[in-house]
Amino acid sequence: MSLPTPFGRLLTAMVTPFKDDLTIDWAGVEKLASHLQSTGHDGIVVNGTTGEAPTTSDEEKLEIIKVVKRATGGKVKVVAGAGNNETSHSIEQAEMAAQAGADGLLVVTPYYNKPPQAGIEAHFRAMADATDVPVMMYDIPGRTGVPIEPDTICRLAEHKNIVALKDAKGDVASTSWVIKRSGIPVYSGDDILNLPLLSVGAVGFVSVCGHTVGARLREMLDSWFSGNSSRALAIHQELLPVYTGTFRTQGAILTKAALKLMGLPGGKVRLPLVDATEAQISQLREDLKQGGVKLN
């Protein structure tokens, strides 16, 4: 079974670097996008959860797309988060992202209000109809409160603009059936399940740990798709401390702390997130070292 890779294989959901005064560090955005490009990424996701999208304005979101596009010179796909829990504003975000040059839209299940599956399906169809930009659905029930059920995914996969699924459901059995039934290209949205999802037919990753170990995730993908599953497994096992360490608390918090340890821009987080404590940073340092990450 050979599925298309509409956004390549390796993408990372990029943090949004903030200065001490919590304004966006635009030079940091450029530097971080260039870092991801240089470590083997096919795409960069902006304005997602890891990018602290709930705390950035529409104007900031548009400028982030433009800056990342400019910094990477069109050599990687820029996929923009464009979903929230209210459909009409989500459509406005999608239209603005399209005008700013986004190559794809990452659309999360509406959260907090717990819509039924009929509402979820109608939301995704409205988003996919709003522009000609291809859509990656994002299924993460641990955050949204509701899953996109397999039957719903299969129906939505028939829409011409819905071209992929970011899967952070944590249910490999369900995802196996979705891939078999719909043929939709699935991207792992949970780093520790990257290799297990490849084994059931996923085409790539939308990572968080790609900030710190992007080159090794690239090697894992290349090894797997060239038939070297033993090397892919070895990399998976080597990276377990990084996967676990990055999510001991909220992922953006520790990713920004990790970037600082590596001498890369990350900066502060905006409330309601809070910066990592000294104890958390000390544990993170050990986790990264165990995973083979070179630190300053």
E-strand count: 8
What sequence of helices (H) and strands (E) makes up the elements?
EHEHEHEHEHHEHEHEHHHH
Indicate the structural class. alpha/beta
Shape: globular
How large is the share of residues in beta strands? 5-15%
Cα-atom Rg, whole angstroms? 18 Å
How are strands sequenced across the largest beta sheet? Answer: 1-2-3-4-5-6-7-8
Largest sheet: 8 strands, parallel, barrel
Please give a handful of descriptors for the protein shown:
48% helix, 296 residues, globular, eight-stranded parallel β-barrel, alpha/beta
Structural write-up:
The longest helix is centred in the C-terminal third of the chain and has 18 residues, at 229-246. The chain has helices spanning 26-38, 58-72, 87-99, 117-130, 141-144, 150-156, 172-182, 194-199, 210-225, 229-246, 251-261, 278-290; strands at 10-13, 43-46, 77-81, 104-108, 135-139, 162-167, 186-188, 204-207. Helix 9 (210-225) packs antiparallel against helix 10 (229-246) and helix 10 (229-246) runs antiparallel to helix 12 (278-290). The chain is an alpha/beta fold and 296 residues long. It has an eight-stranded parallel beta barrel with strand order 1-2-3-4-5-6-7-8, surrounded by five helices. The mean pLDDT is 97. It has twelve helices and eight strands.
